[in-house]
């Protein structure tokens, strides 16, 4: 159940980040760009927990 919640959380943040990036491109604003970057990093961290990087 926790993995499902984490996957949905990552998907929600990814889509919200895409909306923020589109708003920053269309309207502009450093606040939207910073929020989109924060959402991207949060999504990457969630995906690292779900799918750990391969070990060498």
Keyword list:
about 55 residues; mainly alpha; elongated
Summarize the structure.
The chain is an all-alpha fold. It is 82% helix and 0% strand.
Protein architecture, described:
It is a single chain. The protein has 56 residues and is mainly α. 82% of the residues lie in helices and 0% in strands. It is built from two helices and no strands. Helix 1 packs antiparallel against helix 2 (30-50). The model has no long low-confidence stretch (mean pLDDT 84).
- Rounded to the nearest angstrom, the radius of gyration is 13 Å
Question: How would the global form be characterised?
Answer: elongated
- Low-pLDDT segments: none
Number of helical stretches of at least 4 residues: 2
Describe the main β-sheet briefly.
Answer: none
State the helical fraction: over 70%
The count of DSSP E runs of length 2 or more, i.e. the number of strands, is 0
User: Roughly what is the average pLDDT, rounded to an integer?
Assistant: 84
- Indicate the structural class: mainly alpha
Q: Give the SSE order as H and E letters.
A: HH
- Estimate what percentage of residues fall within beta strands: under 5%
Ends: how far apart?
29 Å
